[in-house]
Amino acid sequence: MKYKRSPMEPYRIKMIEPISQTTRREREKILREVGYNVFAIPAEKVTIDLLTDSGTGAMSQDQWAALMKGDESYAGARSYYRFEASVKKIFGYRHVIPTHQGRAAERILFEALLKKGDYVPNNIHFDTTMANVLVRHGHPVNLVINEAYDPKLEIPFKGNMDPSKLERLLRQKKGRVPLVLITITNNSGGGQPVSMANLREISRICHRYQIPFFFDACRFAENAFFIKEREPGYNQKSILEIAQEMFSLADGALVSAKKDGLANIGGFITLNDEALAEKLKHLLIISEGFPTYGGLAGRDLEVIARGLEEVLDLAYLEHRINQVRYLANLLEEAGIPIFKPIGGHAVYLLADEFLPHIPRDQYPGWALTIALYRESGIRAVEVGGVMFAKKISQKGKLVFPRLEMVRLAIPRRVYTASHLEYVAEAIINLYKQRNKIRGLKIIKAREPLRHFTASFKPL
Length: 459
Ligand SMILES: Cc1ncc(COP(=O)(O)O)c(C=O)c1O
Hints:
Helices cover about 40% and strands about 15% of the residues. It is α/β, with parallel strands linked by helices. It has 2 domains: about 25-55 and about 315-459, Aspartate Aminotransferase, domain 1 (Alpha-Beta Complex); about 60-310, Type I PLP-dependent aspartate aminotransferase-like (Major domain) (Aspartate Aminotransferase, domain 2). The protein has a 5-stranded mixed beta sheet, sandwiched between helices. A 3-stranded antiparallel beta sheet has the order 9-14-11. Helix 7 (about 195-210) links the parallel strand 5 and strand 6. The longest helix is centred in the last third of the chain and has 20 residues, at about 315-335. It is globular, with a radius of gyration of 21 Å. The two termini are about 40 Å apart. About 50% of the residues are buried. It binds pyridoxal-5'-phosphate.
């Protein structure tokens, strides 16, 4: 869907944060110093930061006010009960366990459920989800529909899981699949939504095989917006009603509140199973904290409680999704290769098409993030070979992921249309000089999640 008009922000700005400007020469020096890894660049040296939409959003006046009401009691704080009520209203599960962020929820759930050699299906695992399966010696399996890997194919629900692939896995690995996950929206596959029909089908299969079905639900409101917009029968339903219906199909959810919780920190696990909840709470106490705060301050719980209410606002969601579309359309009109259709929280550049002269083992996506920062001070993230390549043989032969992309993630309520126009202009200029961009070699890396700390040398 096109969105050509600059979308009007459904808010006005009450507090400002200066943006730093740097020269090309300064940025070149910074890149050398940080080993050509954008994660190591001090944020003050970034002009527009599209590294992630996680925890980078702006809070509303009501969230700032809620912060002052934080009850910092160790146990049974008032803020926990507000948080619990807000989560229960949307998700509807019996137990709500706070964690300091999404990956802590993943770690605790997998510690409770996974045995060595188990298989964990997902549409596509996010990098931390995959890493948390791997560190428990499990096998993360991506079962998204085949169409998800065609970056030009425009279908409404490209995040769907393939039910026949799931059934096959459950038959072949009987007794070795402790849960099924589905990520909404599918971050590692272009921010694509999953349809209600697909969720229903996956739920039916999980229940038939008696396997717990969990959501990785950090962008649940964006997913619900796409269902409202695209799926027959949902146009007249509210975002809350759609979210409630989605969650009624599963047994629980893992949530990073740093996305659609509209908070800068936080996460939670919410589920129905009493015995499992007890186990999770025990694990939580060991590393995160008492079950009514889970590593968060009372004020953080207040902020999330309020954020979960605000994210359901249709005016907010319409602007959010259309802002992403606006940037995508500016790029597309200039012939920049992007992943289609446009996802919920980010525009994904097709790095291998942008830089066809750079082979996969010289990391075109990574090279593009470096060139983008060097030329314009914009920070983006590679979602490609550095993040997801796997070593398969003793000789170190690498298998590359099917998609080589650069994600321009849009923080919530932070940038205006003119910031996005600056980004589009910078990328269009870079595209004109793309032949000058060179690949890179990895000189130091530590698995898993090597992209966060690896160092590189330009070729
Ligand atoms: C789909 C998905 N799952 C899990 C996480 C992990 O959440 P957190 O960064 O809060 O640990 C993220 C973070 O970006 C995500 O996008």
